[in-house]
């Protein structure tokens, strides 16, 4: 939650030791189910790059 009241679905991860953040949308426009689906898709893409 940001100081202005906005809420974001985010995923923090590391690539080559550097911290990265992936934004998956804002709440409530993006539902929990949609955010979980985007998270799973991001994990599959990251795993394919190894």
Explain this structure:
With 50 residues, this protein is α+β, with helices and mostly antiparallel strands. It contains one helix and two strands. Strands 1-2 form a two-stranded antiparallel ribbon. Strand 1 (7-15) and strand 2 (18-27) form a beta hairpin. The longest helix is centred in the last third of the chain and has 17 residues, at 32-48. The protein starts with 6 loop residues before the first strand and ends with a helix.
Quick structural gist:
By secondary structure, the protein is an alpha+beta fold. 34% of the residues lie in helices and 38% in strands. It has one helix spanning 32-48, and strands at 7-15, 18-27.
Question: Quick check: average pLDDT?
Answer: 87
**Which range does the strand content fall in?**
35-45%
Rg, Å, rounded: 12 Å
The number of helical elements comes to 1
Structural class: alpha+beta
Major beta sheet, strand line-up: 1-2
Termini Cα gap: 32 Å
The counted number of beta strands is: 2
SSE string, helix = H, strand = E? EEH
Broad shape: flat
Question: How do the strands and helices of this protein lay out in sequence?
Answer:
Blueprint: E1 7-15, E2 18-27, H1 32-48
Antiparallel strand pairs: 1-2
Comma- or semicolon-separated keywords:
single chain; 1 helix; 50 residues; 2 strands; alpha+beta; two-stranded antiparallel ribbon
């Amino acid at each position: 939650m940001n100081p202005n009241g906005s809420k974001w679905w985010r995923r923090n991860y590391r690539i080559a030791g550097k911290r990265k953040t992936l934004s998956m949308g804002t709440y409530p426009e993006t539902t929990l189910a949609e955010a979980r689906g985007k998270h799973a898709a991001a994990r599959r893409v990251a795993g394919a790059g190894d």
